[in-house]
Structures are given as C-alpha cells and as structure tokens.
Amino acid sequence: MDAPVSWQEFAASAARQASNLHFSSVAAKMRGVHERIHAQHPVVERLAVALYDPALKRLRTFVDSTDSGTSLRAYECPIADVSSLRAIAESGKARVLNDLGTSISGHSPHSRWLLHEGYRSSLTVPIMQNEQLLGFLFFDSRTRDAFPDPVVADLLLSGHLIGMIVTQELATVQMLVGGLRLASQFTHVRDLETGAHLDRMARYARLIARELAPAHGLSDDYIEHVFLFAPLHDIGKIGVPDSILLKPGRLDDAERDVMREHVAMGVQMAERLINDFSLAGLENIDMLRNIVSAHHERMDGSGYPNGLTGEAIPLEARIVATADVFDALACARSYKAAWTLDNAFDEIARMGGAKLYAPTIAALLDCREEVEEIYCRFQDDTPIR
C-alpha cells in the first residue's frame, strides 16, 4: 500500500470523452449566438446565463452578452428569494414578461439592475441537465412586448444551442474534477481528502473570487472555473505513500519533504491530462496549472515548491490557498481536532499579508454568514491530512 499509485489508466478513463471536443471561450460562443439572434431579432439586447447550485439552493451569474450598458456580474442569491424563477424551475417551462415595469417589484438587487438598465421585457428559459436544473437563460429587451409567440419559438431553438454550449463546457470540467476525486477509490480504495472538505473549500474559493471580482476585474466564468478547479488542488497526493498520508500525528522533516512532492506529482498529472487528451483549448485551463502548482506558496516566500512571493503567486492560487487553509483549521485532520469556527476565523485573520493574500482573507471574513452556511451544509466525520 506504500508504493506510489499508478494513475494513468484512471486518467485515460476520466478524460477519454474530452479528447474529441473543441473548446473556445463560453463568452465568445455566447457573443456569436447573440450576434446571429440580433441580426434577426434586433430587440434582443442581452443574453445571460445564471447557474444553480442545488446544494446551497443559490443562483449565480455565469456569462452574458450585452449590447450596451453595464452587466450584472459577480452576483448570487437564494432561489427562494426569486419565487418566479423557482416556479419556472418547477414547471420546466419558459416564461415571458412583456412589461418588467409592472411585473417585477424592484426590491431585489437584480430587479433594480434590470429596471435601471432600461430593460422592459424578457424571456426566461430553464436549462436542464439529466432532468436536473442547471440554471437559467435570459433574453432581455429594452422594448415592451418584444417576445410574441413566433419570436419565442425561434429563440427557444437558440436557447437549446446555448444550453448545449454551457452544459458541454461545465460537463467536461466536472468530468475531470469528479473523476480525479474518485481516483483514490479506483486505486488505493482510500479517501485522500473527504468529499465534504472539497465541497467546502471549493465554495469558499468561489465566494472569495466573487468578492474580489470588482477590484480585480474578474469575470463570472473566471469565478466559476476557480470553483470547478479548486478541488483538484491536491491531486498529487494520489502518489504519496499511505504511511505518510495517513500517519496519525505530525510528520517529521523527511516525511514532510516527501509530502511536499505531491505538488510536482500534481503538476505532472495535470500536464499529462492536458497534453494527452487535447485539453489545451479548454477555457481557463491555465488556472488548473496555477492552482495545482502554487496553492502552497505564501506571500512572504515561505511556501513551496518555488518560494514565490506576493503577486508572483497567481491570483487563483492565492484564492484557493486561503480557502484550503481556512477549512484545514475548521475541520479534523489525522493529527488534530477541528477548531471552532470562531477560532478558525481568528487565526485566518492573523495570517493576512505575511502568509495569505490579505484581500482574500477580508473577503472570507466579510462573508462570514455564507461561510457558516457552507460549513454547516457540508459535513463529514472522516479526518483528513
């Protein structure tokens, strides 16, 4: 059980379906579809996709194409706060609003934004995947009554294409993430990191990225890919011997050196997947490389493997590092008991600047209520290292 595992057969199985896909930016594809729609229906001035997180029952902006004005980005809310969208999800049917001024209240941030930007009618289409709600597609117009039945029928065909684009992009990344998360079960039949830990830290990372978006100019698809790639941060641990990975206590210096080799192993695995299965064109694939290679770097240069400092550490790696460290503090490990959330928040606050990127810590602290919701939603009693 102590020899490093062979993961090649597993990787082939996980990525084979992706080998024949041709990737380009989801945003670029959306703009292309929007241009074709606009040529036939000039009143359609905005297309946008919001994704749904069924675990937290929340909606979040993902990608849009807008003719003019500002876009609604880095925004999310509970679906319970939008009863009309909840009704669309339950019915599975599209909805037309011919006069937004009289149809929506304007109490929520997204409603106020729609009215402020001058939109006056809309068509909303649910995006389904395997009979489960993936999100919503919005066609918006600044013209009242812009969606008569013939236009709706035409747009539903375009909506099906957009749904396929979004589903394909997310399914490809989710296939890699989900498959690699199960790698240990196919090899050593052991859990390298519990599913709950990965679910928590990925959502912490998305939350942090969302909060950083205005100041750092982050797009919604960047935020989503941080969330999608974050669980792969420690994939190299597949090759760490059990005697070290599962040791019930702190590692000595020699064992710690072996443990740190998981970063190089993870980089090799990521590159092998990218090269062997033609994933180089997958949008934001460099984020995967950066997260795997640099999430153990620290702002003061005390991290590993390259001793990077400050902004030399890719932003997505800084984001994932904060999410990972916070969850490590708040959950049980093979060598320690879980800290209380209060203590974890206090400790992460002390790490700002020297060890972790201060804005990522501020983002986590500013969203404490959402962090606690994530922490309570995803629990697993299995200690991890």
From TrEMBL:
<dbReference type="InterPro" id="IPR003018">
    <property type="entry name" value="GAF"/>
</dbReference>
<dbReference type="InterPro" id="IPR037522">
    <property type="entry name" value="HD_GYP_dom"/>
</dbReference>
<dbReference type="Pfam" id="PF01590">
    <property type="entry name" value="GAF"/>
</dbReference>
<feature type="domain" description="HD-GYP">
    <location>
        <begin position="172"/>
        <end position="380"/>
    </location>
</feature>
<dbReference type="InterPro" id="IPR052020">
    <property type="entry name" value="Cyclic_di-GMP/3'3'-cGAMP_PDE"/>
</dbReference>
<dbReference type="InterPro" id="IPR029016">
    <property type="entry name" value="GAF-like_dom_sf"/>
</dbReference>
<dbReference type="Pfam" id="PF13487">
    <property type="entry name" value="HD_5"/>
</dbReference>
<protein>
    <submittedName>
        <fullName>HD domain-containing protein</fullName>
    </submittedName>
</protein>
<dbReference type="InterPro" id="IPR003607">
    <property type="entry name" value="HD/PDEase_dom"/>
</dbReference>
